[in-house]
Design a protein that fits this description.
Number of strands: 9
Radius of gyration: 18 Å
Number of domains: 1
Largest sheet: 7 strands, mixed
CATH architecture: 3-Layer(aba) Sandwich
Number of helices: 8
Helix content: 25-40%
Mean pLDDT: 77
CATH topology: Rossmann fold
Distance between the termini: 41 Å
Strand order of the largest sheet: 4-3-2-5-6-9-8
Order of helices and strands: EHEHEHEEHEHEHEHHE
Strand content: 15-25%
Low-confidence stretches: 1-11, 167-176, 222-246
Structural class: alpha/beta
CATH superfamily: Vaccinia Virus protein VP39
CATH class: Alpha Beta
Length: 254
């Protein structure tokens, strides 16, 4: 069951996006050395748990925990995971100090996947401060966000013009579901450095929309259909050093 809302939306990924993001998360976590017994990874605001489930499979030796705003959302996440992950309540309204009950410097890695886009600037800073608090010295934070300088905003405008709206799961209304605002690379980098992180490396994906993304986003607009094949084939073999793209990921060290 799904519900439609004029302002609150959950942007479900198509297969190409899921594969790219899952692959990068797995690579980044293995590079951080957390695919081992005793290593702890904390996912920050996993929402539906789609990528937390993926990471659990990518690094099966690690122990996972997550922070989320609502218990109903957390229960939804836990039901889909291949093995147990501990839920910690996240307090967005905290006036200072810790936003969860996770111990200081207790985690080897933390992940933040498409969540900065949903939050006001002050809450973005609070969430990054929480990530830094729970990470061990030298720990890794993996951030995935949507680049504002990409085709994402163009396709959103097209969908709006043709009357299509995004949908969200009929869960407890969770502020982390929307509204969704794509961010620039510089904006995210500045937030990370300001929060005390050192950016170790960056990775981008999709300088042009892949075929399934183009088809999914504009399939209701007949005059665009003839152009979908061109959109799809030209991206093949594209170099991942360009800056205009759908997704952008950063790996940081505390």
């Amino acid at each position: 069951m799904v519900c439609q809302y004029p302002e609150w939306r959950y942007n479900k990924p198509v297969a190409s996006e899921y594969r790219a993001v899952r692959g990068y998360l797995g690579h980044a976590l293995r590079r951080a050395g957390v695919n081992a017994s005793g290593k702890v990874v904390v996912d920050l605001l996993p929402c539906t748990g789609l990528y937390l489930e993926a990471m659990s499979n990518e690094v099966p030796e690690a122990s996972f925990q997550f922070v989320e705003l609502g218990r109903q959302v957390a229960e939804f996440v836990q039901r889909r995971l291949p093995r147990p992950a501990t839920f910690h309540q996240y307090a967005m309204t905290a006036t200072g100090g810790a936003s969860s009950d996770i111990a200081d410097a207790s985690s080897d890695a933390a992940t933040l996947v498409f969540r900065l886009e949903n939050l006001p600037t002050a809450e973005r800073r609070r969430l990054l401060a929480e990530a830094r608090r729970i990470l061990k010295p030298g720990g890794t934070l993996v951030v995935v966000h949507t680049n504002v300088r990409s085709y994402f905003e163009v396709f959103r405008a097209i969908r709006w013009l043709i009357g299509r709206r995004d949908v969200q799961y009929a869960l407890h209304t969770d502020p982390s579901l929307g509204p969704f605002e794509a961010l620039s690379n510089d904006e995210v980098s500045d937030l990370l450095v300001e929060s005390g992180f050192r950016i170790e490396h960056r990775h981008g994906a999709f300088p042009l929309p892949p075929p399934d993304e183009a088809k999914h986003r504009v399939r209701a607009l007949p005059r665009f259909r003839h152009g979908q094949a061109a959109l799809g084939v030209r991206h093949e073999g594209a170099h991942v050093g360009q800056h205009v793209r759908r997704g952008w990921q950063s790996v940081c060290r505390r």
